[in-house]
Amino acid sequence: xxxxxxxxxxxxxxxxxxxxxxxxxxxxxxxxxxxxxxxxxxxxxxxxxxxxxxxxxxxxxxxxxxxxxxxxxxxxxxxxxxxxxxxxxxxxxxxxxxxxxxxxxxxxxxxxxxxxxxxxxxxxxxxxxxxxxxxxxxxxxxxxxxxxxxxxxxxxxxxxxxxxxxxxxxxxxxxxxxxxxxxxxxxxxxxxxxxxxxxxxxxxxxxxxxxxxxxxxxxxxxxxxxxxxxxxxxxxxxxxxxxxxxxxxxxxxxxxxxxxxxxxxxxxxxxxxxxxxxxxxxxxxxxxxxxxxxxxxxxxxxxxxxxxxxxxxxxxxxxxxxxxxxxxxxxxxxxxxxxxxxxxxxxxxxxxxxxxxxxxxxxxxxxxxxxxxxxxxxxxxxxxxxxxxxxxxxxxxxxxxxxxxxxxxxxxxxxxxxxxxxxxxxxxxxxxxxxxxxxxxxxxxxxxxxxxxxxxxxxxxxxxxxxxxxxxxxx
Length: 475
What we know:
- The chain is elongated.
- The longest helix is centred in the middle third of the chain and has 48 residues, at 176-223.
- It is of the alpha+beta class and 475 residues long.
- Strands 1-18-17-16-7-2 form a six-stranded mixed beta sheet.
- Helix content is 40%, strand content 21%.
- The protein starts with a strand and ends with a strand.
- The mean pLDDT is 90.
- Helix 4 crosses helix 6 (138-162) and helix 6 (138-162) crosses helix 7.
């Protein structure tokens, strides 16, 4: 059983026995599943450092959008049991006044917006943001929206009461006059702070304030744990952060990845991804192209008369970069998920039809250049992981969901043939019965293999002399 130190042009995919032989039957069905980011093992994957640099028109429209999402959230809360947490993914960031289902729904939403905008607190926050003329980071905007959130929630609830959609109860509004004073003082002091500590210093200050705010929120929740049900926690304390996080859905489409590795001999990967060495490592043959390496997979490409259509695609395998840097992206000028007319109307125009100067990228003569830069910035953050992961030597296939075909497992599941799969490495702890089951499944499929190279089974073994895991193929 000779040792194999080199697999020519191979990429590897560690799998557990449960994934291969369990309910998903990945081996029998020959499937590769593309995972959404929330299923990946590092919450920092795909992160972009989002910031906002707006004018009075765009900031006013963002605050209006916040109220639209808040009133929709209140609707959800009123029909949800107190013991249930509101799902963060159901915040309706694609909702606008244009696409509400009925005239009555639009009338209610307009009443909520009018009630909030009539308050001095809204004016104070809009003045602060419009006069900033600088980048506003996530932490700062989160703190500012938290400042007004309870007051605005109470205002929206009051509109619901007036429309007979909620019962009059204990007011939830904060003391708005004191909050107005806070925002006015902050607006007055911030230029002086910038002169003394620079914009980077301002961001550090807001990050510290965010930590303090999170601690205060946690303490308040702990002290009221006996009455603070999950639904109320979602509505009162978590909505602002969840709203800002969900705004990224307006920028780029959802993305999904299938993960491979350039190595088959890493003990940590065998332990983590292959169930403590009880699983296997699939050996795939990659193709060399002018731009790098790729893998032939059969998967969804669009919609046909019979539903989702599928075809064989040569998908690029892209190496992951291990670096701590994050991509910075401005929100207003990178909203890419909305049709042009609704985008201009709902984000870049005021009530009188005046258009923000920030909308120049929507002009016909600039759309192509904007689109090229937009897509160039899409993939790099999805191919970045912290240096702690560099032992994985990961390669990824990244898919975007422009056509909205990947929202289900079917839309994210691809298949391979046995001209692409060249071998399987059994783990050090793979039990004999699982090996036999795997060999039976593979041998039944090898009749379809047309490439001259034989399919091979390997056994992983630890070599005490070299202190490495080696793959030995069966003769």
